Amino acid sequence: MAARVADAANVRRLEAAYRQSLRYAEDVRRLYHEQQRAICQSLLGLANALEAKDAYTRAHSERVAHLARRLAVARGLDGDEVAAVGEAGRLHDIGKIGVPEPVLRKPGPLTAEDWHAMRRHPLIGAQIVAPFEFFARSAAFIRHHHERWNGSGYPDGLAGGAIPLGARIVAVADVFDALTSPRPYRAAIPHAAAVAQLREEAGRALDPELVTVCVGLLSRNRV
């Protein structure tokens, strides 16, 4: 009898310890997600502050993220990949925080020195987000969103399928929004002309399959 009572008491202690461990695990998970949200909000705030300095690029990254997510879904990526592509689209230009402001605002053609500074922004952006493990995939997409399909892009000169798919998606969205948005040195390009230019860049700067998907989305007004 005493042994059964002791066994029952042990079972209750084990159950209590198990419930406590579950509560602890839930608290850790909650704190992790709260930290993740706080870091995301901080990075988005930085990106918004950067864009707010320039009326020509204000909301550019938000539009890029929106179109990039649509492209990712249309391409059949899973939910986590779609989220990573959206994050990369929203933060793809965050590295411009390390580019001198006169270069960013320059109304005319950039010099070779200016281009050297500008071409560092994908690397800087990737370095900003890479320390956070939940941005691991997004960091690669940010780093490579200026690679070109034919290998003439930067920073690593990757070509074709060697460029991460998420980066190729962000590149298409980035090019389309840049074409259809005004810049200090030109007016916004009309929608039809921008679509035509996307097609011209297919197989040269941009993934031809993704250009086809993008043009299909645009023609159906799904973006």
What would you say this structure looks like, in words?
This protein is 65% helix and 0% strand. The chain contains ten helices and no strands. It has helices at residues 2-52, 60-74, 79-91, 101-104, 112-118, 121-129, 136-143, 165-179, 191-201, 208-219.
Lay out the secondary structure.
Layout (H helix, E strand, L loop, with lengths): L1 H51 L7 H15 L4 H13 L9 H4 L7 H7 L2 H9 L6 H8 L21 H15 L11 H11 L6 H12 L4
Helix pairs in contact: 2-3, 2-8, 2-10, 3-7, 3-8, 6-7, 7-8, 9-10
Q: Please outline the major beta sheet.
A: none
Please name the CATH topology: Hypothetical protein af1432
Name of the CATH class: Mainly Alpha
Q: Unreliable stretches, pLDDT < 50, 5 or more residues?
A: none
Regarding quaternary structure, how should these chains be classified? single chain
- What's the N-to-C terminus distance? 72 Å
Q: Could you report the average pLDDT, rounded to the nearest whole number?
A: 85
N to C succession of SSEs:
HHHHHHHHHH
Structural category: mainly alpha
Annotated CATH architecture: Orthogonal Bundle
Number of domains: 1
Q: Beta-sheet strand percentage? A: under 5%
Query: Helical amount among residues, as a percent range?
Result: 55-70%
Tally of helical segments:
10
Shape call: elongated
By CATH's scheme, which homologous superfamily applies? Hypothetical protein af1432
Specify Rg, calculated over alpha carbons. 23 Å
User: Quick one: how many beta strands?
Assistant: 0
